[in-house]
Design goal:
472 residues, disordered N terminus
Amino acid sequence: MYKIFAVASALFLGATGTAMAEGQALRPDQLQFRALYKELVETNTTASSGSCTLAAERMAAHLRAAGLPASDIHAFAAPDRPKEGGLVAIYPGRDPKAKAVLMLAHLDVVEAKREDWTRDPFTLVEENGYFYGRGVIDDKAMASIFVDTLVRFKKEGYRPSRTLKLALTCGEEGGSPFNGADYLAKNRRDLIDAAFALNEGGYGLLDASGKPAFLAVQVGEKLAQNYVLEATNPGGHSSRPMPDNAIYRLANALVRVEGHRFPVVFNDTTRDFFGRMVHVAPPEQASAIVALLKDPADNAARALVERNPDYNSVLHTTCVATTLEAGHASNALPQRARGNVNCRIFPGTSADDVRQTLEQVIADPQVKVTMGEIRATASPAPPLDLNVLGPAEKLASEMFPGVPQARMMLAGATDGAFLTPVGIPTYGVSGLFADPDGSGVHGLNERMRTKVLYDGRDYLYRLMKIYGDAPG
């Protein structure tokens, strides 16, 4: 699930990088990669009608054809979810004592209806310097690049010092209770054991002219959790209004939730992020950021910073009403009123802590607050480890000179939420850039610039060599 756009406008810095040229002739290795990418994009992996298992099998075939032994390619699937399988591939290093580096990507994609799209969402279309199709960014770009990286390594005879691993999983986009990253963390922790993992979540943004505005590394994320607010009542005939009305109770509860402001909290990642934003924000807001970093309880400074909804999304826990349903007939008093409140919880706070806060804020025992489906538990942010961030940022400076870089916490959620808590700190690093409108991710006509994809491929290939040769 592609999440970086939650802070895109906040980071739109107008960098001096050169426009990313289109139309260059492809190298032979790029042509081979394009065929792999095309195959994966054209493999339907939606929850409703697709198969991640088939996609994993096709990617495993590329690895085997490159020479990876079958003993280093591990397919997995839950017995009751045969179409939601994945794979783990092992590329052994020379030093058995060095901890591995894990590449993580999800194979599943958001639903896409052909009648809504300009082009067939499950046919890779190259047009006017773009690739179009469901998953061309989220997340089949990184999945294809990671598979291709191991293929390139094997063909070159490259032998890293430390072992490199690849996990391709299903279930990140929802639509099923099964999540492959969660499954591996709970059932095959030994198979994916690593010093750290690279995942989606860290992306860059282009401006309207195609110039790169920034490139971000994702370090940590909020916990997404839904809460159901419900009021019930015996009801009755609408001609006999009663003081106690389920809809009014729910409405009052939601107004109180709207008015509640969770306290501002900083962690290492967000403190670093806002420390960089001081240099690019408008003067009044920059001064407010400085004040808020000094005193998170400064409400005047907070009000100025929160004017930017992207800043607001990573300042604290947020809760917002998203759906409502109530009543059973237009001429009857409501017997039930239910609303969903979606919260994005700052690391260090549990989902149950937020539930208790909502109950206190609502202060009405007749409005029941329950948690919806629990996707993951709260995950601590990984450390700002320079052994991870340093190489990624140094290579980015070399390949994308002049492009500002940021470290950021996501307001959304990735599969890193399952790995970081079990001791595999997971970072969003990609070297990929999206258009300022989000490139249609999760929406219609998802697209990625062709030059961006090939440059991102080279970035991750070079980065994995740097990590592979580093002491573990």
